[in-house]
Amino acid sequence: MEHFLSIIIPVYNEEENLENLNSQISKVLDGAGLKYEIIYVNDGSTDSSIDVLKNIAVNEHVKILNFSRNFGQTQALQAGIDIACGDVIIPMDADLQNDPLDILKMLELYDKGFDIVSGWRKNRHDNIIRVIPSKIANFVICALTGIKLHDFGCTLKIYNAELLKKIRLYGELHRFIPAAVSIFGGGANFTEIEVNHHKRIHGKSKYNLTRTFRVILDLFTLVFFQRFLDRPVYFFGGCSLILFLISVFAFIISFFTEYMFSFAVLFITGWFFFGLAFLTLLIGLIADLLMRTYFESTGKKVYNIKEIS
Ligand code: UDP
Ligand code: MG
Predict the structure, then answer these.
(1) In what order do the strands lie in the sheet with 35-42?
(2) 131 alpha carbon – ligand 2 mean position (Å)
(3) How far apart are CA 221 and CA 249, in angstroms?
(4) How far is the centre of ligand 2, averaged over its atoms, from the C-alpha of 122 (Å)?
(5) What is the pLDDT of residues 191-216, one digit of tens each?
(6) What's the CA-to-centroid distance between 167 and ligand 1, angstroms?
(7) 194 CA distance to ligand 1 centroid (A)?
(8) pTM of the model
(9) What is the rounded end-to-end Cα distance, in angstroms, of the chain?
(10) Terminus of the chain with fewer CB atoms < 10 Å: N or C?
(11) Is the pLDDT of residue 307 over 90?
(12) Using one digit for the tens of pLDDT, what is the confidence trace for 258-294?
């Protein structure tokens, strides 16, 4: 099948990698006779990355987006997706850790009828502080979302552009795109393939443990949406019911106690939990109202039709 590829590359302080990266990608894609564009998104680099990119941009395939400051890899990726013209979108890192040669075998697999082909860095060359949280994250995402992929964090993936353009990426969501596509985009056909991974030679990794915390919050949001997107009141209602039962329990045992002090403590605890139950229910109703506004104002449906015959 003939494709037009949009390669999207977020760049944050990668001056020493860019020329080499660009010539490697061009060599592979020109060699295979593919049609493509490479979109570099300079994410507020403080080194000379933008100058290097401007030199590279003499190549007709290259487009550059230059951010006013550092917004983050996810935001850079989203900006690239917004202007991508291809029918398939292929994000890559700028640090030469991904291998452009893998694109060819991934594309072959994509043509067998998949919407997403995910790279799996089976032989990963990062330090232990990056690898262990990532392994835990993969396990948790897989368990919570039911999507069976080994390496959510591998940037190199092939996406059906139409599907990817249906969703918006926030926070650190670039790690969860397959899950986000499945939840907000109405489902997708996934597969994965082993890809090469090289050690970073120039520049430093931009990630550390503090970012892992944000990733956990993003994952929590995603799982919440997966279960309760169109009816958040079910979640809050469940919490409210638990709080209400605790309050009833406190009231009941307060009447069986002999001491005035413990009666007072239990009675106040009962009212406290009753108040919390009431507030939680109210939050649920407001969240429900927000979701209705979201679905109705954007014209989004609470279902997704695969085909009509
Ligand atoms: N990156 C970015 N903005 C950021 C952090 C990273 O555009 O705020 C880019 C970075 O230049 C690289 C890619 O995202 O192209 C992946 O970053 P990095 O190699 O530091 O991540 P790691 O491979 O360690 O997960
Ligand atoms: Mg890297």
Answers:
(1) 62-66, 35-42, 4-11, 88-91, 157-160, 116-120, 190-194
(2) 12
(3) 31
(4) 15
(5) 999 999 999 999 988 877 777 788 88
(6) 21
(7) 21
(8) 0.87
(9) 25
(10) C
(11) no
(12) 899 999 999 999 999 999 999 999 999 999 999 999 9
- Strand partners of residue 70: none
Residue 56 · residue 62 · CB < 8 Å = yes
Q: Return the beta strands (E) in the chain as ranges.
A: 4-11, 35-42, 62-66, 88-91, 116-120, 157-160, 190-194
Which residues hold their Cβ within 5 A of ligand 2, which is an ion?
A: 93, 95, 97
Q: Which residues form ligand 1's pocket by a CB distance below 6 Å?
A: 10-12, 14, 43, 70, 72-73, 76, 93-95, 97, 130, 205-207
* 15-28 pLDDT tens trace: 999 999 999 999 99
pLDDT on residue 91: 97
- Return the SS3 of 206: coil
Indicate which residue's Cα is closest to atom 23 of ligand 1. 205
Q: Is the pLDDT of residue 158 over 90?
A: yes
Q: Quick check: 156 and 90 in contact, CB under 8 A?
A: yes
